[in-house]
Design goal:
Blueprint (H helix, E strand, L loop, with lengths): L7 H7 L8 H11 L1 E2 L1 H13 L4 H16 L3 E2 H15 L1
Helix pairs in contact: 2-3, 2-4
């Protein structure tokens, strides 16, 4: 029997979802990547409305909003809407 090694990406994918993700973590990921996925956007929305968060989380979210408004972070949801609008115009 051989033992296979598992890389860190696989481990991340199979970690239990009960691990507490913080608003600041999601915001930092988006800021670092320069991109906010729909999934992360929805998760942020849920967290902001259903969980308690501290000032550091609020500041991180506000920084993400500013980056998105200035074009420093692109939003998948806006890209889809723009594509749909352009697609409807072309037809």
């Amino acid at each position: 029997m051989s033992v296979k090694t598992v890389d860190s990406e696989v481990i991340q994918a199979i970690k239990p979802k009960s691990v507490m993700v913080l608003i600041r973590d999601l915001a930092q990921q988006a800021l670092t990547a320069g991109y906010l996925t729909i999934e992360a956007e929805n998760q942020l929305r849920r967290m902001l409305t259903t969980t308690k968060y501290d000032l550091e989380d609020l500041n991180a979210f506000m920084n993400l909003q500013l980056a998105a408004m200035s074009g420093g972070v692109k939003q998948e949801s806006r890209e889809i809407k723009q594509f749909e609008i352009v697609g409807e115009t072309v037809l």
